[in-house]
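Hi R.,

As promised, here are both runs. First protein below:
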Amino acid sequence: MGIDEDSLEYHREEPPGKLEINTTKPTNTQRDLSLAYSPGVAAPCLEIADDADKAYTYTAKGNLVGVVSNGSAVLGLGDIGAQASKPVMEGKGVLFKRFADIDVFDIELDQQDPGDIVRSVKAMEPTFGGVNLEDIKAPECFEIEERLREEMSIPVFHDDQHGTAIISGAALLNAADIVGKDISDLDIVFSGAGASAIASARFYVSLGARTENITMCDSTGIITQERADAGDVNEFKQEFARDVQDGTLSDALADADVFVGLSVGGIVSQEMVQSMAEDPIIFAMANPDPEITYGDAKDARDDTVIMATGRSDYPNQVNNVLGFPFIFRGALDVRATEINEAMKVAAAEALADLARQDVPDAVVKAYGDDPLQFGPEYIIPKPLDPRVLFEVAPAVARAAEESGAARKELDTDQYVERLEARLGKSREMMRVVLNKAKSDPKRVVLAEGEDEKMIRAAAQVIEQGIAHPILIGDREVIEATADDLGLEFDSAIEIVDPEETDLEPYADRLHELRKRKGVTRREASELIEDGNYLASVMVAAGDADAMLTGLMHHYPSALRPPLQVVGTAPDADYAAGVYLLTFKNRIVFCADATVNQDPDEDVLAEVTKQTAKLARRFNVEPRAALLSYSDFGSVDNEGTRKPRNAARALRSDPNVDFPVDGEMQADTAVVEEMLNGTYSFSDLDEPANVLVFPNLEAGNIGYKLLQRLGGADAIGPMLVGMDKPVHVLQRGDEVKDIVNLAGVAVVDAQERENDA
């Protein structure tokens, strides 16, 4: 099937459409229903009647946007009517929810008169926290937005105007910087004079461009002062009329620095591109066919051509989804009265700045594993980059506060944490740990320091203030890789190059530790050249506080050196691998998933205690369940006795200060009704959040099924039970995994220092 047939099937699959309404409060009992509706609902109604602002406290208004259209200018389909526009408006709602966790009602108005639309939307102000106008034709859209902004006290935003303006404005800021031109000097030519073109031209002026340097062309040609005086163009086009001779788009492009296409495909030739100034900037944003193709524009010149389009199959896609969800998120969260020019500029500048930062591996993978690094082929972030929310929404919120549009002030640090929580529990949990790490950063040695991911992670932990990284490897290789990545390494990142470092003291230490395990002094000198052994000895000797390794080795071979050199903690005989799995409303720690193949009851008990310690590093009070395929003796054999005996030993241990029980089946451990009903005698009165599996096979299978089928996000594996903080990554882990484990290692080191 083609894209049309696939889309039709996608939309008609049960339930039809793309949106539904879900409840956010429990509705399981008669009391729940009496609180949700009659008689309990009267109380919030009366509170709001006394103070209208309390609608933000007691209803969903503060997170609800109305997407409003009359269907008069839908995508490239034209005036197809209100009813036919509904799939687009539903789609807009999907994007609001997916990227910024904003709820949407789509409103399709069967009205053409601007006055009727203004009255209809204004009448719905009590319902919404903001209004997104969509697919309303020009010039009526200008009047409608302007009147609604004047008459309503909530944000009103016509995305067709301002979305393209903000995203392309961010791209223009970076493109001008790359080619070494000042935005105030740019000679800018527009093809198209509709809503998005006029709004973009206005916005570029807000960014520093000069009106007298902007030439706008419509289907007739250059919009001149003579045409304006003759009444040949509407009042909105007149704003950009120039006192120049009549001419075509081709005439306008001669010696121009920037082309902005918001018109129709195929109207720009290679000859026209060749006539432009050196290092031209070309934004050909007609969809689906740009004014000139990416390949033709690039091939037309030998110098730098920075090209952006509206298509996802070319670099630098100008996609409005980079703007409206995050702009509204920031505006809603400060209860803004409007989305003003300062807020739009803040959004563009935040996007431009984000494009200069290192790109997460997950984003690179989502776009085909092609390198994404600031430069001509990457001047604006990708829509699937989750950091857009954390950069743009706070910037918009701050601008709203500074410009007087906000009715509520936010603490920026706390606000970013709240935004992270909206994208998933794992981000919320890691923020707890990373904030602890920042309070007292420690030295973390990265054994595989030549690996690109390790180098990028080192730069990020420095930027975030999490740790002081030490990279082991060839200095020239590390510095060359950092240079290729555009990372500036300074004294904050230490490099330990075995070729230029006196390794003899470390070899002596290794020999002393392993001489009664058959390691000769000569063998110690050879082993210490291995990054894993060198890092392990550095940690053992106190020259580093923690260690990360594993990207380039199988887990057992990466674990062996730290086990041999660092060893287990005084209160532990065994190490174990733990994964933190986060669901929408729940977290669980799964152990052991990486180390102990067939643990006995003593190992199970020790793994439980060590995992409970780990849970507390995440500010989670542990409730542990030792899992099996039986419940509390329903099956009695050697396999079920191990977790049963381990649980019994833990309950009798005076040093165990958390609830623990077992053996029990997995559903018993996590379902409150079973614990408080069938097994009310259990020491667990709430579902377990520490799940200890009976063996490595079960643990590994269990966490992977929960992750893949249960939709959980995973943090780990985190190694517990070691004498010093050591973590072994999985091959293929991403930079964010390295950064997260560095944070966990730092917090571990902090706690050990405090306990000493």
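And here is the second one, sequence first, then its structure tokens:
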Amino acid sequence: MVVHSAELVLAGLDPEQRAAVTAPAGPVCILAGAGTGKTRAVTSRIAHRALTGEISPRHVLAVTFTARAAAEMRARLTVLGVSGVQARTFHAAALRQVRYFAPRLLEGRAMPELLDSKVRVVTLAAAKVGLRADRAAARDLAGEIEWAKSSLVEPGEYVVAAAKALRETPYEPAKVAEVFAAYERLKRSNGVIDFEDMLRAAVWGIEEHRDVAEQVRGQYRHFVVDEYQDVNPLQQRLLDAWLGGRDDLTVVGDASQTIYSFTGATSSYLVDFPRRHRGATVVRLVRDYRSTPQVVGLANAVISQARGAEARLRLELHGQRPPGPEPELRIFTDEPAEANAVAARCRTLVDGGTPAKEIAVLFRTNAQSEAYEKALTEAGVPYVVQGAERFFERVEVRQAMVALRAATRSIPGETPLPTAVVEALAAVGWAPDAPPPGGAARERWEALAALVQLAEEYAATPEVLPIGEAAAVERPVTLSDFNEELARRAAQQHVPTVDGVTLASLHSAKGLEWDAVFLVGLSEGTLPTTYARTPEQVEEERRLLYVGITRARQWLWLSYASARSPGGRARRPSRFLPQLDRSGGGERAGGGVPKRTAARRPATQIVSCRICGATLLAGPDRKLGRCPTCPSDIDQDLYERLRDWRARVAGAQKVPAYVVFTDATLTALAERRPGRTEELIAIAGIGPRKLGLYGEAVLALVDGAAVDDIAPEKSFEISS
């Protein structure tokens, strides 16, 4: 249905969304928390202004960061009855303008060819200054060049700028600057430009050519920028050029989702928006329509501890969905046990009717995916890898497998398997010391380190060979055995799938959502990563966890392993997890129990206040399901009937009343009024035994039964 009515556009909006939509012309900052309907708010604002005649759609430029988001914005505007709005990414908008004005700006010459990737030219530039950069090193150098150009840093300024920004450079900063300068020279000599050049060309065309500026500003008079916390200095420079001193600008962002600062993105423009634009209207969207109150409560608890500039704009979300299951916090003895338990639960969810495509397993680094690819494969659960190749399809892993096969001819057969693997990987430049600087190089190192870990685990399970009928002998596994095992795993994981469980890094999960989310590997050194050394970097790691939590609609699992591999060095849980009792054990692979417990204990659950969403730590508060300061919605009549019934049961059983149920449990029952067995057992203090003894009677009382209708002798007979 197409709307075509300004009043209908406002229908169904919450008060905050309505305030954003109807804000007066001029600078407007919409602080939109995860799941709060920011796309609906911003498209409704455009549509409402257009349908009331305040603006013309063809004069609107809405800028997003992904083509998918731009397409969604255009589709929603069409449904709202508005067409003609230009919704594009920064790069697409700049490219369109540069192409249009190229004959005028370049004196009749065609626009230079646009590089799809910098890596090839960067590799040549590195060679020009005496560096032999492999693909990973070239990717890291390209990343540094992109950061510099996005930050408006020239080659001669790079060394100082990198030092100020505390950049972790792949080579000495002076050498990176040399590569940067050589890269720029090579581009010019080859007549090509990169994406940053294109943005700069759009800026130059407007700033230095009055006729171009007049035409662009005459066309675009009203601007909307989505994900404003991810804008970099070059993009802001282009936005300022488009505006030309005008102030009809609406920005949408969430400082708590700032996770791309390593690329040059900065939330400072969002944080400082009211200062840069005097008289700006600021609207906060805090009603979360995506996640259950339980998930929202955990997200609030995690981000409430944030510090730094972004924390000034922290939003406390309020869940709008019906209550759901509490997030689960699981602890495992090692990473294989964690992966196997995740795969088993995915299998259960899929068998129970949850579509595989509505499940995601999220981790900090892509190198962590291998364990989950293996576990899901063995559990028969289809999966897809988001934003990266499958583990055995990665270039560095394929090269390593070739080197491992070749090493069987040169490494003695009696060499212990882990040692043999380390020696073989030396042929592809891997060494078991600290990983190299640079994100791509480090990711390559971690992928090969995962192969070494696989070798250690595989070596711990020697093959048992039968000898006669009464004896057997253990044969240590060899490099040839390990190569066969890798080939088997690769063959299993190469089965194509259409829909499956999503495996993704936290960065690549941004902007997506699923019914069920597993956040795994939440230990110190992984999240936050050991490479987060400054307070600002640590806070960005906290925001990564926050982004991961807010991807879940209904069901959320958080887990970590006490050790990386069986018997390995102990690790601590992530500092970002709520400080709850973590004694509850997780499952071990094969149905065993954690080392420190003789019997399986229930998993620790994170309990959130059902009213305000805060994480509850105290026992009585967890039982009530609300903060002591939050208003009680107790059914007083039900509470009195429960007290009378408890007194009769206690008298019949000749036990104190609190043995049946404590006052806190009665209060929780009268407040929460459970209507089903599942809701009843969710109340702390009601376990399987008390459910069997009193569950039927309690549910009857909640349903309105009189105390006289329930015989206490039945409970007495059961307990005796």
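A quick note on the second one: Residues 144 and 169 are 7 Å apart (CA to CA). Let me know what you think.

Best,
J.
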